[in-house]
Amino acid sequence: MASSKYPKQPEKSQATLGNTAARAGNTKARTMPLSTPNLANTKSPAVPTKFSENTEHLQEINSIRKAPVGAQIKRVINLLFKRRDALTPDQINKECYVDVNGNKAVFDSLRNNPKVHYDGERFVYKSKHQLQTKTDLLQLIRKRPEGIAVVDLKDSYTAVIDDLQALKASGEIWLLSNFDSLEDIAYPNDPKASITVDDDLKQLFRGIELPRDMLDIERDLQKNGMKPATNTAKRRAAAEIHGMPPKPKAKKKKHEISKRTKLTNAHLPELFQTLRGSGQ
C-alpha cells in the first residue's frame, strides 16, 4: 500500500508547477505594453525665443536711428574708414544700424560729405591724399620740399604712421614738430644733398647769437626772403583770447655787493670802507 501511494506524488508536483508557470506567463502577457515607443525618434518641442532677450539689441538700434544726423554720419564714416571698402546702404544698415535709405537727411548729408565718395550705389571713405603703400607715401613727401603735415596723412591708409616711422628710421624723410600746432611735419631727405661742412664754418654758425624773442627771429627771416615756420604773433593772440597770460620776459639779475662778496680790486678802497663800516 505504502509503495503504491508515494510514486503518485511527483506527478502531482509536476502538474502543480506547470499550472503555476502558465498563470505567470498569462500575467506577464497582460502587463506588457502593446508597443514601446522609440525614444530616439521623439523630438522635444522648440523653445520659443523670448522678446526680452532681444530687447537690449532693439533698444540700441532704436537709439542709433533716433540720434542726431551728425552722430549717425560720424558712425557711418568711422565704419567706412575702418573697412576701406565700398558699401551699399543695406550693408551699412546691417553693420552699424544706420538706415541710410530710410532717412533722407542722413542720405543727403552722407552723399555730400567731403570724407565720403558716392558713386550712385555705394559709399566709400575718401582720404585727403589717395595713398595705399609706403612707396606712394614717399613719392608724395618728395614732391613737398616745404613739408607736409602728418595730420593730413593719417587717414590715407591703416599703416601710414608705421610707414612714416620706417621712412624716418631709414633716413629718407625728416619728422619735425611745428611750434605753433605741435604737429609733426614730414620733410624729404635727399641723400644727394649730403655735404661735408668745415669745422670753421660750424663754429661760425654756432657762434651767431640769436634774438631772444621769436618775433625778432621771424622778422629777420622775412627780411632775408625766408618764410618762418612759426607764427608767434598769432599764437600769442590766441593765448590771450583763451585767457592764458603771456610769459614774462626774463629779467637780468643785478649783481650787488654783499658781505659774502670777495673783493680783489685794490683800486676801489671806498668799497672796503663800506664793508668795514657795516661789519662793525
From TrEMBL:
Keyword field: DNA-binding, Nucleus, Transcription, Transcription regulation
Keyword flag Transit peptide: no
Region (Disordered): 1-47, 236-263
Bias-annotated ranges (Basic residues): 248-262
Molecular function terms, GO-annotated: DNA binding
Keyword Transcription regulation annotated: yes
Biased composition (Polar residues): 33-44
Pfam family for this entry, one: TFIIE_beta
Entries under InterPro entries matching the protein: TFA2_Winged_2 (IPR040501), TFIIE-bsu (IPR016656), TFIIE_bsu_DNA-bd (IPR003166)
Localization in the cell: Nucleus
GO CC field: nucleus
Domain TFIIE beta: 57-132
Function according to Swiss-Prot or TrEMBL: Recruits TFIIH to the initiation complex and stimulates the RNA polymerase II C-terminal domain kinase and DNA-dependent ATPase activities of TFIIH. Both TFIIH and TFIIE are required for promoter clearance by RNA polymerase.
Protein name: TFIIE beta domain-containing protein
